Amino acid sequence: MESRDEYLIKLIVEYCDDVLAAVRDYDVDLDKVNNSPAIRAMMAFFVMQIGESARQLSDIFKANHPEMEWKEIIGFRNQIAHVYGRVIPDILWDTVENDVPKLRNYCNTILGKK
């Protein structure tokens, strides 16, 4: 793995850890994502950073790791970045609750961690 890709995978793990810590520290749930613009913005920021890091991964890396839906991760980042007011809280929460932990585990596997 190229050092740039390794750096980006580590960064993705860090952002995953950040969003999961925020969920824990602020006791975030779907109701809070729906009703708190600040909580929604915080969750969206971390997810957007994950997508930006994924966007910068080399094409070779992404091709060698097709199990992860890199295109969708990047697409959701673009949606947040460019049409933030239209981000659907339910989709954002589903991403945080379900997809972020899976991505974190996948990236840690690539890095040889558990």
Helices and strands in order:
Blueprint: H1 3-25, H2 30-35, H3 37-56, H4 59-64, H5 70-82, H6 89-110
What do these coordinates show?
With 114 residues, the protein is mostly helical. The chain has one domain. The protein contains 6 helices and no strands. Helix 1 packs across helix 6 and helix 3 packs parallel to helix 6. The longest helix is centred in the N-terminal third of the chain and has 23 residues. It is globular. The two termini are 18 Å apart. The model has no long low-confidence stretch (mean pLDDT 94).
Query: Number of helix segments?
Result: 6
Total number of domains: 1
Beta-strand share of residues:
under 5%
Shape: globular
Class inferred from helices and paired strands: mainly alpha
Structural descriptors:
mainly alpha; 114 residues
Can you describe this structure in just a few lines?
With 114 residues, the protein is mostly helical.
